[in-house]
Write a structure and sequence with these properties.
Elements: E1 2-5, E2 10-16, E3 23-25, E4 27-30, E5 34-40, E6 44-53, E7 59-68, H1 74-84, H2 101-121, H3 125-130, H4 132-141
Antiparallel strand pairs: 1-4, 2-3, 2-5, 6-7
Length: 142
């Protein structure tokens, strides 16, 4: 039991007795029948090199860097917390340990690769290079 306060760039995720699903807060009393973990909402970068094929059947390598992070809204934070703390382990102080960003990064990487391949497959090589801003907008929107 104790009073816990999160850092400026993080939240507490509390589960257990008296909480129906999960509770996302900046500070709270955590009772002995509850578990808690901290999730960071700091954006993070990751690089991918995507092998794609254009509508003209030209294969090329597309290096990209993405910066991602959760929205600072309660619904988005709940989804992020459930993904990030998917495998909760019991620590000596009844504190849950997060699985880390690697799990989230794998999920996001799979989504981005799939969507980017779909977009690229409908474009010509000339469109990709001449209309970079349009290509970037399509990737972000999808």
């Amino acid at each position: 039991m104790g009073y816990h306060v999160s850092d400026a760039n993080s939240y507490l995720v509390i589960t257990g007795g008296g909480i129906e699903d999960i509770k996302i807060v900046k500070k709270a009393w955590v009772w002995p029948w509850q578990k808690h973990s901290r999730i960071s909402i700091s954006p993070f970068d990751f690089e991918i090199t995507l092998q794609a094929m254009t509508i003209e059947k030209l294969q090329f390598s597309l290096p990209a860097v993405f910066t991602i992070g959760p929205d600072d809204h309660i619904d988005a934070l709940c989804k992020y917390a459930k993904i990030l703390t998917g495998r909760i382990a019991t620590a000596p102080r009844k504190e849950a340990t997060a699985t880390g960003r690697g799990h989230v990064q794998d999920i996001v990487k799979g989504i981005i690769e799939g969507e980017t391949r779909v977009i690229v497959s409908g474009m010509t090589m000339e469109e990709i290079f001449k209309e970079r801003q349009v290509f970037k907008t399509k990737v972000i929107e999808n």
